[in-house]
Amino acid sequence: MAFLGLDHICIDVSDMKAAKDFYISKLGFVETAPANIQGKIQTAFLRAGGVIVDVKCPVDGKVQLRAQEQGFQTGINHIALKVDDIQKTYKELSAKGVSFKGEPKFMAHSNRWIAIFHDPDGNCFHLTT
Description:
Low-confidence stretches: none
CATH class: Alpha Beta
CATH architecture: Roll
Order of helices and strands: EHEEEEEHEEE
Shape: globular
Largest sheet: 9 strands, mixed
Mean pLDDT: 85
Helix content: 10-25%
Strand content: 35-45%
CATH superfamily: 2,3-Dihydroxybiphenyl 1,2-Dioxygenase, domain 1
Number of strands: 9
């Protein structure tokens, strides 16, 4: 098993326009594709060099405090760890006692495979290829 690095960081925000203004205008990120709306969540992928920030915001602007994956709040949503072989890494980590939300699955909207797990404090991580 070898982690290749961080693939992206997903940050939940309360105002997409303000977030994009900050990341693009102030930090120099570039939007890699037009904003995407899936259900009640708008997503924008922003890149600076090798860093991708996946910014998510509720379409209606309503933000609620939540435990990970049980609502919406501002802050880091998950950390994605890029791996060379998601099936192999999934099996190796499962054998070490890492509990995944489910088996790796292909996510068409981001064109990548993911497998989701949490650290002992509930912070969310994705394995991704």
